[in-house]
Structure formats: C-alpha cells, structure tokens
Write a structure and sequence with these properties.
Elements: E1 2-6, H1 14-19, E2 28-31, H2 36-46, E3 50-52, E4 66-70, E5 75-79, H3 91-99, E6 102-106, E7 113-118, E8 121-126, E9 139-145, E10 150-156, H4 157-161, H5 172-178
Parallel strand pairs: 1-2, 2-3, 5-6, 6-8
Antiparallel strand pairs: 1-9, 4-5, 7-8, 9-10
C-alpha cells in the first residue's frame, strides 16, 4: 500500500494540488488534521480514499479523535497529536499505539517533519506543506507498506517541484542585525 501523508494544511491546498500529479500509484491519503475538511476535499477532487482526523484548529479536544488504518503490514494509528503533547515528547503517542495494537503512528501538529522508530513503533510526521516550522518550504510524507515492511520518507516541496528555494530561518531580530550599522 502506498499512502500520501499530509497535514496542517490550514485550508490552503495549492501545494498539494501541485505535487499530487507528480505522485504515482497512491492508494490512500492520510490527513493528520488541521483542517479535517481539507482531507475530505482532496478525496473528492482526486477521487482517492482519504482518512482524516480532527486537530486542535478543528476544535478537537478529545484524545479519542484518532483513526486506525489497516494495512498488510499491520495497524497504523492516525492522529493529530495535540492531545498527546507531541511538541514535547512521543511517549504518550507510543503508548497509544501499543494500546491500539499499532505498529506505526502518523501524526501532525508540530509542522515539523519527522521519521523515527522507537520500541518497534514507527513515527511519521509529514510536516506541513503550507505552514512549515522547520525552515523548509513545506513537506509531506510517503509511506509504503507490505506484509513484511514499513518504509516512510519525507519529501520536501522544493525537491519534487525542482526548485532550490528554501524559507529563510530569519526572524525579526536577525533582520534588525542584518541591516544594522554594526554588521
């Protein structure tokens, strides 16, 4: 199974529309929340199954707002992650995966891409195509499963679109220093 994992789109789908034609043989779109309706809209537009969850910007305040994706590899937990405090640690997410007999977790909320494995559980955060917080120009993930394997990779917007454009890591203080007389 080949899964496109996106999240934290916040109502802006232009980049998803740009990258989707470049992807081949996608079986499912998994949307990690913020905005839940974006996942539904993409499913209709691309005529592909979508599983989406609600995030904090969708008004979700329940730790029971998650889905289980059944694959030939095993169960995959799909959640936004805000109720599991993913901005600070992944322990709660790991326990939730174990409680639900899941071998992997797809989550969002932080807007920073991540692929990791701990205690036999795979963790995948696609980051955000529209509001990245990692200095990139946006990202998504592609997950491939088979009976004996789980493979996940983060793909950056600039990589698939053939640009070298990256967002600046600078903020207000850096811009002041860059334009001061002292430097």
């Amino acid at each position: 199974m080949k899964i496109l994992v996106i999240g934290d789109t916040h109502g802006k789908l232009n980049k998803v529309r740009e990258i989707f034609p470049k992807l081949k043989n996608i079986d499912l779109i998994a949307h990690t929340g913020d905005y839940f309706r974006d996942g539904e809209a993409l499913g209709k537009e691309f005529n592909i199954p979508v599983i989406a969850v609600r995030g904090n910007c969708d008004g979700s305040s329940s730790s029971s707002d998650f889905e289980i994706i059944r694959t030939e590899y095993g169960n995959i937990l799909l959640t936004h992650g805000h109720m599991e405090n993913v901005g600070y640690q992944l322990t709660t997410l790991m326990y939730k995966a174990m409680e639900n007999d899941c071998k992997a977790v797809l989550f969002g909320h932080t807007h920073c891409a991540l692929v990791d494995e701990c205690s036999g559980i795979h963790f995948v955060n696609p980051g955000s195509l529209t509001r990245p917080r990692d200095g990139s120009d946006g990202s998504y993930a592609v997950v491939r499963t088979s009976e004996n394997s789980f493979d996940a990779s983060v793909v950056y917007y600039s990589t698939i679109m053939g640009t070298n454009r990256r967002s600046s890591n600078s903020g207000f203080l850096r811009s002041i220093l860059n334009y001061s007389d002292r430097f």
